């Protein structure tokens, strides 16, 4: 339980970190563009209020006090004061009404396609709704709703397709194939803007939406601490020492918060073997472990840019024993071997990366092993690894 508490505490620490100021702008009600520094949090749901510094003074802004705000990296939000469908999209809460359940709302909509015709999204953690506007005109909701047709069947109100045909249509595109999803609607609006500008329109995807996958190799030294106690022989010993380790790694950097969070997976090999003769050459203890360790966990990048990266990580480690070379042994008149079963553990670590080359340290928390009532022990380790990232995919 202590290991789990420590692991969760480590993962939670970055969530409590203060959000940094980002350079950006606001457009006030007089259409004046004002440079500011915005407390940007890559909101999971659309904000109804923001904080920004202007001339060193911290101020709060709402959709009723400004028209728009944005960041240098292309992220943009516009003010919206109007109706939003509040119908639930959760199956157990779907209503029997075909028509949207409108509520008057004051919020900021995130711009996902910025061109002659714009696409916006609103997410309140229960319902995702899309909006559009043409030539800087009125922002209108794209209507879509799942509703109960009977107690056992559902149907869809796909009025948004008629809205697209009437307002945002160019070429021979088949509107019936458009889905009420971010990727499908984004593609439709990008294609429409390109069509009406004869291919001149270029869509700039903001940096917060990057998906990144990286692959690497690593090698280093692992310092082991193993304790073994045979109660039936009344012998015990500590086996400490170092052994080489090497492996491969992969990570998927999540497409939000500037790719500060990543899901990481590794496969590492190590072989540890020691023998300690105590009373005589015929009496003592020995241990051997030959293992592939499979850590899977979370990385948090304190700093993550093209050249320098600093990170913390936390892993759950599964272990695969190789052949029968995982045992403790009593060296007596006749050798008595006891197999060490696959043991899981938790680990925490930190590292630094310069371009594609890096160094990381990791501590494997103590884990215990027991075989019946006659043998017990525990193991922990500290490793230092050099790693090299040889492939990177962005999409």
TrEMBL record:
Residues of the signal peptide: 1-17
Key words of the record: Signal
This protein's record includes keyword Signal: yes
Superkingdom assignment: Bacteria
Protein name listed in UniProt: Uncharacterized protein
Source species: Faecalibacter macacae
């Amino acid at each position: 339980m202590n290991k789990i508490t420590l692991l969760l505490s480590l993962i939670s620490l970055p969530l409590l970190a203060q959000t940094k100021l980002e350079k950006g702008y606001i457009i006030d009600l007089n259409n004046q563009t004002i440079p500011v520094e915005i407390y940007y949090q890559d909101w999971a749901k659309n904000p109804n209020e923001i904080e920004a510094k202007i001339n060193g003074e911290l101020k709060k802004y709402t959709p009723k006090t400004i028209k728009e705000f944005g960041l240098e990296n292309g992220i943009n939000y516009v003010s919206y004061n109007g109706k939003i469908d509040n119908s639930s999209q959760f199956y157990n809460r779907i209503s029997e009404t075909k028509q949207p359940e409108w509520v008057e709302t004051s919020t900021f909509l995130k711009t996902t396609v910025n061109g002659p015709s714009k696409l916006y999204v609103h997410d309140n953690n229960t319902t995702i709704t899309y909006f559009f506007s043409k030539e800087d005109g009125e922002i209108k909701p794209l209507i879509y709703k799942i509703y109960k047709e009977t107690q056992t069947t559902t149907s869809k109100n796909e009025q948004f397709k008629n809205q697209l045909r009437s307002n945002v249509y160019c070429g021979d595109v088949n509107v019936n194939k458009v889905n009420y999803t971010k990727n499908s609607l984004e593609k439709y609006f990008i294609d429409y803007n390109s069509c009406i500008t004869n291919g001149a329109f270029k869509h700039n995807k903001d940096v917060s939406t990057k998906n990144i996958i990286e692959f690497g190799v690593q090698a280093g030294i692992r310092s082991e601490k193993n304790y073994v106690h045979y109660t039936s022989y009344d012998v015990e010993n500590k086996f400490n020492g170092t052994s080489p380790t090497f492996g491969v790694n992969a990570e998927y950097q999540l497409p939000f918060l500037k790719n500060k969070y990543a899901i990481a997976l590794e496969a590492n090999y190590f072989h540890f073997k020691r023998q300690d003769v105590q009373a005589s050459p015929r009496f003592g203890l020995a241990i051997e472990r030959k293992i592939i360790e499979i850590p899977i966990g979370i990385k948090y990048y304190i700093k993550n840019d093209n050249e320098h990266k600093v990170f913390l990580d936390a892993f759950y480690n599964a272990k695969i024993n190789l052949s029968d070379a995982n045992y403790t042994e009593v060296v007596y008149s006749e050798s008595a071997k006891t197999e060490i079963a696959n043991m899981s553990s938790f680990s925490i670590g930190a590292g630094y990366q310069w371009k594609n080359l890096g160094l990381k340290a990791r501590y494997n928390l103590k884990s215990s092993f027991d075989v019946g009532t006659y043998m017990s022990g525990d193991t922990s380790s500290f490793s230092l690894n050099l790693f090299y990232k040889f492939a990177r995919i962005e999409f």
